[in-house]
Amino acid sequence: MKTTWTTWAAAMIAVVATIPLGCTGSVVEIGSQPPGCPDAEPVAGAACSVTAAGCKYTEGPCAVELRCDAESAAWQSKTTSCSPVAKDCGSGQDGDVCAVIGETCGESPGPCSGGYFNTCGDDHHWHSSVAEGGGPCCDPSGVCPAEQPTQGQPCSPCPGEPACSYSSGCGQNFASCDPDGTWHIIFGDCPPPPPPDNCTNLGNQGACETDPSCRWLTPGCGDVPIGAPGCFTIKDCGPGTCGPSEICQTFSYNPCFNKGCDACGAPAQLCVGGL
Question: What percent of the chain has pLDDT over 90?
């Protein structure tokens, strides 16, 4: 009997000696994972072709479950619990526990104004950052350039004037900074330049009448007679046909000058300057 007892006691001591003391790792029961679950945790989003769901793994302070989604043929992950309890993105501070790796949030009024950002890292902790604004990104005053920029000239597509206007002598040109960072110019409608007026250089009736593009006119009866006899273009003026410093105005001329008829006044539209 003594020999039997000694043998049994020695066997028990040997068994106890194989149990580690002070274990800190997690213990996974044999057969605790559902069928098809790999021993090593798969990467969320990676391709899969097994039938598996409810695969349980530990990611730092959080417990997660993965399943092989048949529709996308990729592993999908969800966090089931965290200890300590995970903070949401809006309230999480740098170093707090977060549930979903890769989740991010933040706020930024614009590309030149900086902002605050929060990102859930691979360690299931929030990592916060602050971006400084200003700098060379754009002119914070948002004013238009003093001189009209040229088409395609580089610019900063930052908050500011939506369109800058510039006087072109025949309307307004508008400049706007496109999202690609270049100026886009919309040109105002300019009338075609007036034809050269050679008639005014012909100072007498004889020279004027030898040029088929000219006519000699004398003052006629009416409210606004021509101020003095002169050589004028054969065609009446109209919108956009006078020079930059001229206007088109109706005058009365004598259609019967040297023609032996009785009329004394007829209208003519002439370009005049300074009136």
Answer: 25
